[in-house]
């Protein structure tokens, strides 16, 4: 451990990146993917064995967004013990910000041809744009909002929850209540976010048509870049002194508090950062799938994110990315081949991973039994011994 | 009935009528069919037999204008025997018998016409069509006949028809109906209906009254009533009284009457809201109480709890299907058998889940949450694969259908009342088990201090399994109740699970009364917000209020007191 801190002082970023084998592999794969996949799509002619079809490009881009979302959950669950069952809300809020920008970009090309109002507002007989839609015709504003709105919600929510020491299952439940309340709210037509249908029929982003292969490739590259950046940020947080406090909070919150740390501020910080990451994931997701609707707020989806992290390996960051890819590929596969089987598989996965793979897929690979994983494992063992089988 | 509908359909396209008149006429026609079957002889009769026969014979006239006059004369008197005659005339079934020049109603059976005497209403011979000459009707006459029939409803021997007629008059408030209504009041014997009629008279007198005294008298009658209808009448009157500058005391009296009616109505509204809140609360309570028990003892939220409810509901369905050949539809027995069956099935599933999954995850509540979520997904899909994704129909037994209705607009449906009662019984049963049985004692011991309970020889693992079985079994019972009021579908559990969490988190762990109080307060708050904000917004407000409440009391309303400190 001391070895870490020495290196960290001398060469801040490179030092811990070199130490982080899984992270290096992840970043290398991301760089390779960001170059090869768009090249395979745009440069390699169709029919060639190396050609990447556009649907696969979009699918992979979607997975990258999910991976970023999983990363944000792992940051708080794996390193701070906050099990949020409402992270889908931050993802969806980021998505709605981007969706509002894309909606404004449609301009007079909508069905009703209104230059200002989106179609659904014309349909609802609205005369004016609601105030909260102002500014979303500017790209930078939408991007800022995609990070600011989830961040603000997480800050307020976290401030209230952590200050009153709402922890464990109670926190999980109220995060679920939060996303459920938002689900109900966004379903309402009066909210001005398209109600049940959400926002869709997007045309272009920054003047580039969303249907063109080039734009899709660009979005894919952006997803790779943001996933890489967020990974580095998350890794940086967990490797810093602050990160050590977070891990301590995860393992023994009261002891950290008794040692004089303001636990709630640490939690609040990491919760907000995580929400911002989820918002970015949502903003990248929406132009690639072409729709955002209130269904993204569903509590069931938020719980599913947690299983991505658990499958990959909690508390490793790169494990979360891996888990998101594994589960979502399985989902694509099963819902295509035998849709009835998918829920059995997902349910079984939840049970099997919690029972047999508490460290996830990554934990099952011996080469990745890093120092961090050790501490997680020992803390679990210790706690079980400590409490004689009761939380 | 069918005949009645068709006769309306046969109306001339030229006759203009409003929907209300149409409805009134339909009622009239229906009433006549009823009357043909049961003529009450004790009804006050305005015509003597001879008069009736004579006046009916005047219908056989060539001039339509004269016929209309006769029809109006017959109807205006309110004799109950007139309605069948007019009805028959409308249907073209009124004939003059050539042999004795008597007017008869004749219905065709094959080639033979059966004659019914218009005075006695009894069968008075048969003949072929040759011996009868039809009393002709044209469209103008048909219109007059229908109008006459509508007013005659007020004098129908069937009290339901009369009541409907009075309600129509109340709604229409047509001053022209006043003389007829006054005559109906004279003859009415049923006291409830008489009161209704007087009220109707007062509403019309208010509109038609010309002197201050008449108006004040009418207002006094109206002020004693508590229905939304009267509120509308009064507020309409207040508006017109102010506009047309009636005497100040009339305006004052009307305003006073209006505000007193409104006050009483709002009290009833509150009573209704409380009732609906209790009704919702009892549903929440049933759904959440099993969850509260497992959460209290084991410290884990069982995400598959909703699916236990669903299994209970499907058990009800299966029991009903299995017993269908032996029991008449609407029998209460299948429901009575479903309750223990659902308890056993869901309880058994719960014990299996505990033994196979949860027992390996003690001390890791968050992982248990995920694993039970997995179980819930698998159970949902299993039910979907077995029974299909569509809703299944569970028929309610007879004693659960219907409602008690108050004139103030309050409706208490029997199924809701039974569910309230049922939830009280279930909670009392659980409280009894917890308080008076050895298992209950052990369970409470484990809830309060697991290690100490273990130290004094309680097999905590065994208690866990049984507790989980009990909680799941109760969820199964809840499923039986919910199958009566909502759709039995694979998603049934999902609709209740979040609400159940909220109740448990709000009420606090390890305290049954916390859950009871939590369920009822959430239900009532929800129903009080609903009229103000709408159903969805009310729910959102409740959720936000809960999130804020948790800040104040992180362990719910009734937290376990003790020296336990989280890690």
Automatic annotation (TrEMBL), chain A:
Q: Enumerate the subcellular locations listed in this protein's record, separating them with semicolons.
A: Cell membrane
How this chain sits in the membrane, per its record, is: Multi-pass membrane protein
Task: List where the protein spans the membrane.
Answer: 25-44, 50-69, 76-96, 138-162, 169-187, 217-234, 265-285, 305-329, 341-368
Which Gene Ontology cellular component terms are annotated?
A: plasma membrane
Tell whether Membrane is among the UniProt keywords: yes
Keywords of this entry: Cell membrane, Membrane, Transmembrane, Transmembrane helix
InterPro entries according to UniProt: ABC_transp_permease, ABC_transptr_urea_perm_UrtC, LivM-like
Provide a Gene Ontology MF annotation, just one: branched-chain amino acid transmembrane transporter activity
Please indicate which superkingdom the organism of origin belongs to: Bacteria
Per its record, how is this protein called by name? Answer: Amino acid ABC transporter permease
- Keyword field contains Coiled coil: no
UniProtKB/TrEMBL annotation, chain B:
For membrane topology, the record states: Multi-pass membrane protein
Q: Where in the cell is it found?
A: Cell membrane
Signal peptide: which range, if any? 1-46
Source superkingdom: Bacteria
Key words of the record: Amino-acid transport, Cell membrane, Membrane, Signal, Transmembrane, Transmembrane helix, Transport
TM annotation in the entry: 280-301, 333-353, 365-383, 417-441, 462-481, 501-525, 532-550
According to its UniProt record, which protein family does this protein belong to?
Answer: Belongs to the binding-protein-dependent transport system permease family. LivHM subfamily.
Name of the protein in its database record = Urea ABC transporter permease subunit UrtB
Q: Which organism is it from?
A: Thalassospira aquimaris
């Amino acid at each position: 451990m001391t070895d870490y801190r020495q290196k960290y002082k001398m060469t801040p970023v490179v030092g811990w990146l070199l130490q982080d084998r899984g992270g290096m592999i992840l970043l290398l794969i991301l760089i390779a993917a960001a170059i090869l996949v768009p090249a395979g799509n745009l440069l390699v002619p169709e029919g060639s064995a190396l050609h990447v079809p556009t649907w696969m490009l979009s699918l992979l881009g979607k997975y990258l967004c999910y991976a970023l979302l999983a990363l944000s959950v792992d940051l708080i669950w794996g390193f701070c013990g906050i099990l949020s069952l409402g992270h889908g809300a931050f993802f969806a809020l980021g998505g709605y910000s981007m969706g509002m920008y894309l909606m404004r970009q449609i301009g007079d090309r909508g069905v009703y041809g209104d230059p200002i109002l989106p179609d659904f507002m014309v349909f609802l007989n609205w005369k004016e744009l609601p105030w909260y839609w102002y500014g979303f015709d500017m790209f930078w504003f939408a991007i800022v909002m995609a990070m600011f709105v989830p961040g603000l919600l997480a800050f307020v929510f976290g401030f209230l929850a952590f200050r009153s020491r709402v922890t464990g299952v109670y926190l999980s439940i109220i995060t679920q209540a939060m996303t459920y309340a938002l689900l109900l709210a966004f379903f309402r037509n009066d909210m001005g976010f398209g109600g049940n249908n959400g926002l869709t029929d997007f045309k272009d982003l920054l003047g580039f048509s969303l249907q063109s292969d080039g734009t899709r490739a660009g979005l894919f590259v952006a997803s790779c870049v943001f996933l890489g950046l967020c990974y580095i940020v998350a890794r940086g947080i967990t490797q810093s002194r602050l990160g050590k406090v977070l891990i301590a909070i995860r393992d023994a919150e009261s002891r950290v508090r008794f040692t004089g740390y303001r636990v709630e501020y640490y939690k609040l910080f990491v919760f907000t950062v995580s929400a911002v990451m989820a918002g970015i994931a949502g903003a990248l997701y929406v132009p690639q799938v072409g729709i955002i609707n209130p269904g993204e707020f569903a509590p069931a989806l938020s719980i599913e994110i947690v299983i991505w992290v658990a499958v990959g390996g909690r508390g490793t960051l790169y494990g979360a990315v891996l888990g998101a890819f594994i589960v979502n590929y399985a989902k694509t596969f099963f819902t295509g081949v035998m849709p009835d089987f998918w829920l059995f598989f997902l349910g079984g996965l939840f049970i099997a991973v919690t029972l047999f793979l508490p460290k996830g897929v990554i934990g099952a690979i011996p080469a990745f039994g890093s120092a961090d994983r050790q501490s997680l494992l020992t803390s679990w063992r210790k706690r079980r011994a400590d409490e004689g089988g009761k939380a | 009935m069918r005949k009645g509908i068709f006769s309306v359909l046969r109306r001339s396209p030229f006759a203009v009528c409003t929907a209300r008149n149409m409805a009134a006429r339909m009622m009239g026609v229906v009433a006549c069919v009823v009357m043909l079957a049961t003529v009450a002889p004790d009804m006050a009769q305005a015509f003597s037999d001879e008069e009736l026969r004579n006046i009916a014979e005047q219908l056989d006239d060539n001039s339509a204008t004269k016929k209309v006059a006769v029809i109006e004369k017959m109807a205006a008197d309110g004799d109950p025997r007139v309605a069948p005659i007019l009805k028959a005339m409308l249907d073209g079934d009124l004939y003059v018998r050539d042999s004795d020049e008597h007017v008869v109603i004749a219905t065709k059976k094959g080639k033979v016409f059966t004659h019914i005497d218009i005075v006695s209403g009894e069968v008075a011979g048969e003949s072929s069509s040759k011996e009868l000459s039809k009393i002709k009707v044209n469209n103008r006459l048909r219109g007059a006949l229908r109008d006459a029939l509508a007013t005659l409803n007020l004098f129908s021997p069937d009290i339901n028809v009369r009541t409907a007629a009075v309600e129509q008059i109340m709604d229409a408030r047509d001053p022209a109906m006043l003389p007829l209504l006054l005559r109906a009041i004279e003859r009415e014997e049923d006291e409830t209906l008489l009161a209704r009629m007087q009220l109707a008279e007062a509403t019309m007198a208010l509109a038609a009254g010309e002197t201050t005294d008449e108006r004040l008298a009418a207002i006094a009658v109206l002020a004693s009533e508590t229905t939304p209808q009267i509120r509308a009448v009064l507020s309409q009157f207040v508006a017109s009284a102010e506009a047309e500058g009636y005497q100040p005391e009339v305006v004052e009296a009307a305003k006073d009457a209006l505000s007193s009616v409104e006050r009483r109505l709002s009290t009833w509204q509150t009573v209704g809201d409380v009732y609906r809140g209790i009704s919702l609360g009892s549903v929440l309570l049933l759904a959440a109480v099993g969850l509260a028990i497992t959460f209290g003892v084991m410290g884990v939220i069982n995400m598959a709890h909703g699916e236990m409810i669903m299994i209970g509901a499907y058990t009800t369905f299966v029991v009903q299907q299995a017993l269908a050949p032996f029991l008449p539809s609407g029998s209460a027995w299948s429901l009575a058998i479903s309750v223990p069956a659902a308890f056993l099935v869901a309880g058994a599933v719960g014990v299996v889940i505990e033994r196979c999954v949860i027992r390996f995850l003690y001390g890791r509540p968050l992982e248990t949450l995920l694993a039970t979520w997995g179980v819930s997904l698998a159970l949902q899909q299993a039910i979907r694969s077995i029974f299909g994704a569509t809703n299944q129909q569970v028929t309610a037994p007879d004693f659960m259908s219907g409602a008690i209705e108050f004139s103030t607009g309050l409706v208490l449906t029997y199924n809701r009342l039974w569910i309230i009662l049922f939830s009280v019984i279930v909670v009392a049963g659980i409280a009894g088990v917890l308080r008076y049985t050895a298992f209950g004692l052990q369970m409470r011991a484990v809830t309060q201090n697991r290690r100490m309970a273990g130290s004094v020889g309680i097999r905590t693992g065994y208690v866990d399994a049984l507790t989980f079985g009990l909680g799941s079994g109760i969820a199964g019972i809840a499923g039986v109740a919910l199958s009566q009021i909502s759709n039995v579908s694979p998603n049934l559990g999902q609709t209740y699970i979040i609400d159940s969490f909220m109740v448990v988190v709000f009420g606090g762990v390890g305290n049954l009364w916390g859950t009871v109080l939590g369920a009822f307060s959430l239900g009532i708050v929800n129903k009080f917000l609903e009229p103000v904000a709408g159903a969805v917004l009310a729910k959102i407000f409740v959720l936000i209020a809960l999130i804020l409440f948790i800040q104040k009391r992180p362990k719910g309303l009734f937290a376990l007191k003790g020296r336990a400190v989280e890690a």
